[in-house]
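To illustrate the input format used throughout this study, we show a single complete record. The first block contains the structure-token representation of the backbone; no residue identities are included at this stage. The design step must infer an amino acid for every position from geometry alone.
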């Protein structure tokens, strides 16, 4: 008879905590991905979790066999990945940082429950403000820093690639550029390192007949920064883009891809920044965060990155987390 191992890591199993717009869309995306054999959904409203699990499970005949069900914290101890989307929704006119107090209080209930189960997998924080909450999860969980990561600016970076692709009329998958810093109003478009399949961005722009680089980059950066507000003002929530971002991060984790993604992770002196979680290009694999990847930044971008870090540190201090 096979001996049970309640604390072994099972990367065929994931859990989603929080079954609102983002959690349910993420669960649906993960079901379609065929990455997992088992997916457990947890929500403060158990009936909501049951309803989402039942609804999503009806799509399994069009995907791959898997088990999807509503559960509780005892069901997640052996999961390879726990995805936390639980939290108050961002309202029209509200910034991500406005959510701090409400969502830290929610995390102070959720994270200790996970820690009590001797969880050995990866915590993926998606709730906003993601950089602040990833820092809080590291401190509250006691888990190694590499195993607590945030979705960071993965979605912002995808938005940036879409905007550049549209501007230049090229496949956005050929665009190599990052949004770094806070997943929020102080985020930075790292134009210094942007390129189109290895061709410097400005050179490629001129190939396509665009010469007013400053105006174009300022507009694109503003459109990316404001895109969540635009979506929320129209449909009250963003859920599909972030769900695909969750799927992409999970792929890198489950398949040990060593992919470079701009996730939220603890800084330890890079660009003069330490003891704060920021979104920077990082190698992501089975063990979670491996290392930051240095990218070319000019003096102004480094200054903006430090300013972004200072804003987040101020929020942490206000909430007695730093």
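Output of the design step:
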């Amino acid at each position: 008879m096979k001996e049970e191992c309640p604390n072994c890591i099972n990367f065929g199993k994931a859990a989603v905590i929080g079954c609102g717009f983002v959690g349910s869309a993420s669960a649906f995306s993960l079901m379609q991905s065929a990455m997992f054999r088992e997916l457990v959904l947890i929500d403060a409203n158990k009936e909501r979790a049951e309803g989402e699990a039942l609804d999503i499970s009806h799509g399994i005949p069009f995907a791959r066999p898997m088990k999807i069900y509503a559960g509780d914290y005892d069901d997640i101890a052996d999961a390879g990945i726990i995805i936390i989307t639980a939290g108050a929704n961002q309202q029209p006119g509200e910034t991500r940082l406005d959510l701090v107090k409400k969502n830290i209080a929610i995390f102070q209930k959720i994270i200790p429950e996970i820690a009590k189960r001797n969880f050995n997998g990866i915590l993926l924080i998606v709730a906003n403000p993601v950089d602040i909450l990833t820092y809080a999860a590291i401190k509250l969980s006691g888990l190694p820093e590499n195993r607590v990561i945030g979705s960071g600016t993965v979605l912002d970076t995808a938005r940036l690639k879409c905007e550049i692709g549209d501007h230049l009329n090229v496949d956005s998958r050929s665009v190599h550029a990052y949004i770094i810093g806070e997943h929020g109003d102080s985020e930075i478009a790292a134009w210094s390192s942007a390129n189109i399949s290895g061709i410097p961005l400005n050179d490629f722009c001129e190939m396509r007949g665009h010469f007013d680089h400053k105006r174009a980059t300022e507009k694109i950066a503003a459109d990316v920064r404001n895109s969540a507000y635009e979506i929320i003002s129209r449909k009250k929530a963003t859920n599909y883009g972030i769900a695909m971002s969750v799927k992409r991060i999970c792929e890198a984790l489950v398949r040990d891809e060593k992919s470079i993604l701009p996730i939220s992770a603890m800084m330890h002196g890079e660009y003069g920044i330490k003891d704060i979680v920021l979104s920077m290009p990082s190698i992501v694999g089975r063990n979670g965060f491996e290392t930051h990847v240095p990218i070319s930044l000019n003096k102004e971008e480094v200054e903006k990155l430090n300013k972004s870090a200072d804003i987040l540190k101020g929020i942490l201090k206000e909430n007695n987390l730093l």
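Structural context for interpreting the output: The chain is about 40% helix and 20% strand. Residues 154-317 form a domain with the L-2-Hydroxyisocaproate Dehydrogenase; Chain A, domain 2 fold (CATH 3.90.110.10).
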